Structure formats: C-alpha cells, structure tokens
C-alpha cells in the first residue's frame, strides 16, 4: 500500500526584488511530494534556493506563485490565528542556531508549544518527560540553555520540535553549528525517530554526511530540481554516502 | 578607515542611536527644567516667604534628581557599550591598536555626551517656556520672577552632564581596552542570570521593610526630626524601595514560575522574561517608583494649593459676592454660576445709617462661616438679629465701601415704610469652585464697579465677599502652585523617558525571541497580550509603591495645606489617566518594534 502524501509542492515559484529593483528568481516552478514516514533531504550549494524552499514549506514565507499543501491544507492561504495554530500543531522545526529561549529552562522550552495549545500542566509534564527520555536528555530538563553544550541544545530543540507530535519535522541545517561527534549523534537520533516513531522528516543540508542519513534526496540547483536519489533498501549508509558524493561530483562539472 | 567604519556603523544602527540620543536629550532637558527653578534664588525667595522649607526641599530634590540622572546615564552608557562592543572587536581583528580603540571609545562617549547635553538644554529652554504658558492657561497661575532661560541652570546642567559623561568615557575606555577580542565579538550572545543566595535575600527583605517602615514613621511624625525629615525620608524610602524590588519581587516571580498556573499559555515565557530582567530593572524600577511618588506628590500638592486658596476664601465670608441693586444682566450671570444660595435684603439709607427690615433677617438669616481647624473646611451658620447687631462687619463689608462705614439698623416693616428715601436691595449669593468661575465673577465685579464709580472714588475694591478674599490670596499661593504642577510634570516626563529608555533598549533583543515564538506557532493575539502583560507589570509595580509613598508623604504638608488629603482623587485620577495613556502608547510602540514582520 502506498503511504499517504503529506507534502505536495506544485509549481512553486519565488521571486525576490520589488517592482523597481532587479528581480531575482530564487525558485523556478518546483514540484515534488513527500509521503508519510519519509526522511527526505534537500541538498544544494549556497544560493541554490534550498532555504527559500524550506521557509515556504514551513509557512515562514509566502510563495510568488504555486502551492504548498501539507496534510491537504493549502498553507499559503493561512493567516493570523489559523496560521499560528497550524504551525503549533502540524509543524516541528529545528533551526541551525538552536533558537532556544535563554530565559526558560529546557523543560519549559520543550513544553512551550503545548502550553500554547492550553494543554493541562500535568499532561505537558508527562509529554515533556516522555520525549526527553526518548531523546536521552532527561537529566538536562531543569537546566538553562546557557548551561548546555551545542549538541545538548540541539537535542533540546529537537525535543521541542517533536513534543506535540507534528505531521512533519523540518530541519534547517540542524548540524550546521555542531561538532562532528554531536552532529553524528543528532543525525542518528533523527534517524531513530524516523524509524521508530514513524515521524516524517524533511531536512535541508549542504553536507553529504548529514544527507546520507536520509532515505531520499532531492538535489536543487539554481532554483530547480536537478536530480533525485532514493536509497536502496539493502544499501548501507556508507554506500549511500558514496552515491551522494558521486552525484555532487557530477554537479560541479 | 576607522572613522569611515564608525560613521557607517552609526548609519546602520541609527535607530539605536536615536533611542540613545532622545533618551539623553529628554533627561538633560528635564534636569535643566528643574534647575531653572532650583537655582532661581529670586523666584524661590519671592515664593518662599510663605514656606521657608521650599529652598530646602529643592536642594534635596536636586540631589535625588542627580542620583536618578546618574543611574540613567549609567544605563545609557551600557547601552552604548553593548551597541559598540562588536564593532570594536571587529576593528581589533582588522588590526587596530588598543590605544587607538581606547581613543575612539573616549571620543565617542564624550561626543555623545556633548551633543545630547547641548541639544537637551535647548529643548529644556523651549520646554520651560511652554510649561510656563501651559500652567498659566490651565490654572491661570502666573509665576513672578520665573525665566525659562536661566544662565545658572545652563551651567549646572552642563557641569552635571559633561562631568558624568567624562566619567563614563574613562570607564568605557578602561573596560573596553581590557577585554579580549573574542569576548568583544560575542558580547551580544552573553546573558547573565543572577541568583541570590536565600539568606541574602531574606536580609534584603528585612532591610527593605525596615527602611520603609522607618521612613514612613518619620514622615508621620515630622516633629521628631524636624528639618531632617525630608532627607531622611528620601534616603530611607529610596533604599527601602530598592531592596524591596531586589528581593521581594524577584522571589515572588521565581515563586510564581513554580506554580501550576504559570504553565498556561505564554505565562511561562512572560515570567521567564521578568525573572531575567528584574535584576537588571531593579535600579530603574526604584528610580521610577521614586519619580512616580515625586511627580504625583508635586501635582497633588500643587492642586492642594489651589484648594487652599478657595478654602481661605470661603473661610473669609459666607457669600461669594454682594451686589447692591443687581441689574437683570447681573442676575443672569449669577444664574449661570449655579449658586448654592441666594438672598435679597431690602434697605434704605441716609448719610450715616442703613436701615434693614428686621423680619427679613429673621426669615432668611444672614450667615457667617465657621471654619474647622483640623480640615480647614468651612460650614455656614445663620446669625440671629441680636448677634448681627452686635457685630455687623460681615454684612456691612458685603455692601461695599460706600456703605461700609455707616451704621446698620434693623427695624420693623412698618418703621421701614415710614423712612424716607428710595428702597434699594442687597443681593448676596454663594457659589463653589471659584477657580473655574473666575471669568464670570470678574465680569460681575466689573459691572458692579461701573455702577458705583460716579458715587464714590474709593469703591474700586469694595465688593466684599469670598471672591475678594480669593483675589487677595491667589497671588500669594500661585507661585507655589506653579512650582508643584511644573515639578510634577517634569518628574513625570523624566519617569516616562526612564521607562521608555529601558524598555526600548531591550526591545531589539526581544525581537528575536518574539520572532521565534511566532515561528513556533504562537497566535499573534497571544504575543500582543504577552507584551501588554510584561510592560504592564513594569508600569504597575513602581506605581503601587509610588502611590503608597505619596499617601505617606502628603502628611508632610499638613502644616501647609491643613488637610493635604482633601480631594486627592482629582490629581490621582488626572495622573492615572496620563500614566495609563503613556502605558498604552509604549505598548503600541513596543509591539510595533517587536512584532514588525507580522504576516
């Protein structure tokens, strides 16, 4: 049985520059789909339009034309409270620079999204404890972000993005600010979450190592889909890594 | 190259510089305003005849304002430092020598100081001229010997501000040239979170409550310390307030965060913000609480002087004016005044005597004021004819100079009818709120004077009644009234700029946080409410403390005002409306800065 489609992108365009300025087309009519339970990577060099794409998928930016549907909801039509509630319920987001609120403890940071939905304090506490146990950060809950290392911060951020059980988890270069050990730990964590919790993940990266944890990779160049690579079921991560490097190599030519 | 970098940095951060400059300009302008009163000896002397402690109050007011200015500049300076740290770090990476950087910092600080002080004085001169005409218009109060441009005030403001900025410049140079390059570069990412040890907190609470209690006790018993009461009060209350904010409120916020209720909606966030900020804010909150108390106190006393003018007037006579043979025009004017009481007595007169009808005085008794000493309020008592015969002064002065020296006789109706001469009438009325009715009352006086000029040359000031007393007393108090209202508004403006400065300096750091919250899916309305609450608490806390200070502080004016608490709801309401309006304005401004990219 084919899995349900959760993201449907159709002829998505984004043009920067006001009427009087020189126009710059960051995205040129991109279309693709993501199915439930997938772990998709979006790769491309700097300036390829991958961050622009992610911002529009995550409802942070409006497309010039084309549509983005998440769970059959046309996200560019959402406004005000609807938009806020959609973000709070359907989307989880991990930023490159963590973006934790430094005046809240880890537990408060994680529980924030739930408290906004007026979930009972007791339920929030349970959810926070549960997700913290899953991500192995139970002993960090009472600490403030300034007391955490980069890797720990990103895991807290990950917990915050997952606590409300979103339809899709977005990652914007989540390992970008981490050392290699922390980066590997985080990626393994995301891989596990995808395998075990069946959480759908879409991650933007320019790093082949990070991308090798995905199951499918969409390569973007100059605002267009250049190539798509699907990991074979029997292939190991190292093999997939090699495949990615090969594709990237052909890009440069 | 470095100069180019500096200029481009200023261009890039012009918004921040705008806040810095506007804050400093307002602060120095207000300091100047205050000094125009405090250093104007002629003015103080002329108005201090009634109240010998005025000069004394002013010198301590000046000390307090200096203290607040010191805190204010301290904040402005750290704002400037935090703004420039990153740039200086960058310059060092580019190879600028520490000595050169030190020079730049020194020059920049002094430059900011000079520009804002000079502009501040210019704004101050404009403001004080504006205030003078404003107070004149609103309360019809003129202040003799007051000059908006006052050399001594200019010198004092320059001296104070440039001195402080020079200190700040040395401090900045010292701090900046000792920090490592990396520390400078990443300064904006550092956050500080203070934790006070619990026993220190308890000591602070005890100190705070002790100081406040002592201060209040001395204010309630001003005879114990006499002249020392005011400085003692200012000292104990300022420090008491500081400890109170530092310990009680931080503990309160920390406690609130632990409760179940705090987990709802954005409350966790708001409380988290507050807990992180309150330490940073205690000094400014103390300053704001004290300024709040001073501003409200000054306005209340200023308006209190207005009350006392009316009270003194109404203690002088039971009737506002006496009119002899009132014309239809005059009667119409009187009706417009909505008098509480009106009475007409018929009389006939000859060269030495005035004849009244006895029965009329039995039916409508002639009243005299009885003044209660404790509250300085007057009630009115009707006199028997026998009493009136014994002491007819009030009645005769009410008839004006022409009749004042004649002998009154109270005779029967029949005897009155037999007397020769034409029948005339004395019309008396009483109305309240003389200040607001001056225009009409002056018209009445004028028309009455016009009637009698041909009869007697000395009748100009002859129309006796409480309004006459009002006219005599008003100039004596108007200088003090001006002072009170003037200072009240000046302190209020200082308070406003303090709050704005502190809030806006945090706004740019907040922008990122609110942006993130929006990305996490917080409803725009919730964000706006969170801002309302956070700013609201920063307004409310000092206001509550300030009101308590004022309620105690007013006791000091018992000797001067009789009952200083009389009608305080008027200035309190006026003040609350201003304060609330300012709160709404600041919330809107803050929302605009922080939530600018709302979609």
TrEMBL record, chain A:
Belongs to the ABC transporter superfamily. This is ABC transporter, ATP-binding protein. Keywords: Amino-acid transport, ATP-binding, Nucleotide-binding, Transport. One of its GO terms (cellular component) is membrane protein complex. SUPFAM superfamilies: P-loop containing nucleoside triphosphate hydrolases. Residues 7-247 form the ABC transporter domain. CDD domains: ABC_MJ0796_LolCDE_FtsE. Pfam families: ABC_tran.
From TrEMBL, chain B:
It is a multi-pass membrane protein. Residues 60-179 form the ABC3 transporter permease C-terminal domain. It holds the Pfam family FtsX. It comes from the Bacteria. Signal peptide: none annotated. Keywords: Cell membrane, Membrane, Transmembrane, Transmembrane helix, Transport. GO terms for biological process: transmembrane transport. GO terms for cellular component: plasma membrane. The chain crosses the membrane at residues 12-33, 53-75, 105-134, 154-175, 196-219, 234-256, 284-305, 482-504, 535-554, 566-590. InterPro entries: ABC-4_Integral_Memb_Prot, ABC3_permease_C, ABC_permease_BceB-typ. It is found in: Cell membrane. Belongs to the ABC-4 integral membrane protein family. This is ABC superfamily ATP binding cassette transporter, permease.
């Amino acid at each position: 049985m084919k899995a349900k489609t959760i993201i449907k992108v159709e002829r998505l365009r984004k043009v920067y520059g006001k009427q009087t300025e020189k126009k710059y087309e960051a995205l040129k009519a991109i279309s693709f789909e993501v199915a439930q339970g997938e772990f998709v990577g979006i790769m491309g060099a700097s300036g390829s339009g991958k961050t622009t794409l992610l911002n529009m998928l995550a409802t942070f930016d409006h497309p010039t034309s084309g549509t983005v549907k998440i769970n059959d909801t046309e996200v560019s039509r959402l406004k005000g409270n609807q938009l806020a509630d959609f973000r709070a319920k359907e989307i989880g987001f991990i930023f490159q620079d963590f973006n934790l609120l430094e005046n809240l403890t880890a537990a408060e940071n994680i529980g924030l999204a739930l408290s906004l939905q007026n979930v009972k304090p007791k339920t929030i506490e349970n959810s926070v404890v549960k997700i913290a146990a899953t991500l192995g950060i139970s002993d960090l809950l009472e600490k403030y972000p300034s007391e955490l290392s980069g890797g720990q911060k990103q895991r807290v951020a990950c917990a915050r993005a997952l606590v409300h059980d979103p339809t899709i988890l977005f990652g914007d270069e989540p390992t970008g600010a981490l050392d290699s050990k922390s980066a590997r730990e985080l990626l393994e964590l995301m891989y596990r979450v995808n395998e075990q919790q069946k959480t759908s993940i879409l991650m933007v990266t320019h790093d082949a190592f990070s991308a090798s944890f995905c199951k499918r990779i969409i390569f973007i160049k100059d605002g267009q889909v250049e190539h798509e690579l699907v990991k074979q079921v029997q292939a190991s991560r190292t093999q997939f890594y090699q495949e990615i490097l090969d594709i990237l190599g052909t890009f440069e030519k | 190259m470095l100069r180019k970098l500096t200029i481009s940095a200023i261009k890039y951060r012009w918004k921040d510089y705008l806040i810095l400059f506007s804050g400093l300009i307002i602060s120095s302008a207000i300091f100047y305003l205050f000094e125009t009163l405090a250093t104007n000896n002629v003015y103080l002397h002329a108005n201090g005849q009634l109240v010998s402690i005025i000069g004394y109050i002013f010198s301590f007011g000046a000390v307090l304002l200096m203290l607040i200015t010191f805190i204010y500049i301290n904040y402005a300076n750290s704002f400037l430092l935090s703004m420039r740290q990153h740039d200086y770090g960058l310059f060092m990476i580019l190879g600028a020598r520490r000595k050169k950087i030190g020079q730049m910092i020194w020059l920049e600080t002094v430059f900011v100081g000079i520009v804002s002080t000079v502009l501040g004085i210019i704004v101050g001169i404009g403001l004080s001229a504006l205030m003078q005409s404003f107070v004149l218009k609103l309360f019809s109060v003129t202040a003799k010997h007051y000059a908006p441009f006052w050399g001594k005030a200019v010198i004092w403001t320059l001296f104070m501000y440039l001195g402080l900025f020079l200190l700040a410049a040395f401090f900045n140079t010292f701090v900046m040239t000792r920090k490592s390059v990396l520390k400078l570069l990443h300064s904006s990412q550092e956050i500080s979170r203070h934790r006070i040890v619990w026993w220190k907190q308890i000591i602070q609470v005890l100190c705070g409550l002790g100081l406040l209690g002592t201060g209040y006790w001395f204010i309630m018993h001003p005879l114990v310390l006499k002249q020392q009461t005011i400085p003692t009060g200012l000292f104990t209350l300022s420090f008491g307030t500081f400890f109170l904010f530092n310990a009680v409120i931080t503990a309160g916020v920390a406690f609130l965060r632990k409760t179940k209720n705090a987990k709802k909606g954005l409350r966790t966030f708001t409380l988290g913000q507050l807990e992180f900020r309150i330490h940073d804010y205690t000094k400014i909150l103390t300053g704001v609480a004290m300024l709040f108390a001073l501003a409200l106190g000054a306005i209340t006393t200023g308006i209190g002087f207005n009350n006392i003018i009316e009270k003194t007037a109404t203690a002088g006579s039971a009737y506002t004016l006496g009119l002899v043979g009132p014309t239809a025009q005059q009667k119409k004017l009187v009706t417009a005044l909505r008098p509480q009481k009106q009475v007409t007595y018929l009389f006939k007169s000859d060269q030495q005597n005035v004849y009244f009808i006895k029965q009329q005085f039995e039916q409508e008794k002639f009243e005299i004021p009885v003044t209660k000493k404790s509250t300085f309020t007057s009630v009115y008592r009707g006199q028997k004819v026998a009493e009136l015969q014994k002491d007819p002064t009030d009645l005769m002065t009410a008839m004006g100079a022409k009749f004042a020296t004649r002998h009154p006789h109270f005779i029967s109706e029949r005897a009155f009818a037999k007397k020769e001469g034409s029948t005339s009438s004395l019309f008396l009325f009483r109305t309240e709120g003389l200040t607001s009715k001056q225009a009409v009352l002056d018209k009445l006086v004028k028309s009455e004077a016009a009637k009698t000029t041909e009869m007697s040359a000395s009748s100009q000031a002859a129309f006796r009644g409480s309004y006459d007393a009002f006219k005599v007393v008003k100039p004596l108090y108007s200088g003090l009234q001006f002072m009170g209202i003037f200072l009240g508004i000046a302190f209020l403006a200082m308070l406003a700029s303090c709050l704005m400065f502190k809030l806006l300096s945090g706004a740019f750091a907040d922008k990122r946080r609110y942006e993130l919250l929006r990305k996490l899916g917080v409803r725009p309305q919730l964000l706006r409410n969170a801002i309302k609450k956070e700013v609201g608490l920063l307004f409310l806390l000092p206001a509550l403390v300030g009101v308590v200070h004022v309620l105690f502080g007013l006791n000091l004016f018992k000797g001067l005002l009789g009952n200083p608490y009389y009608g305080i709801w008027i200035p309190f309401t006026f003040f609350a409306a201003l304060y609330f309006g300012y709160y709404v304005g600041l919330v809107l401004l803050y929302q605009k800065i922080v939530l600018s990219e709302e979609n």
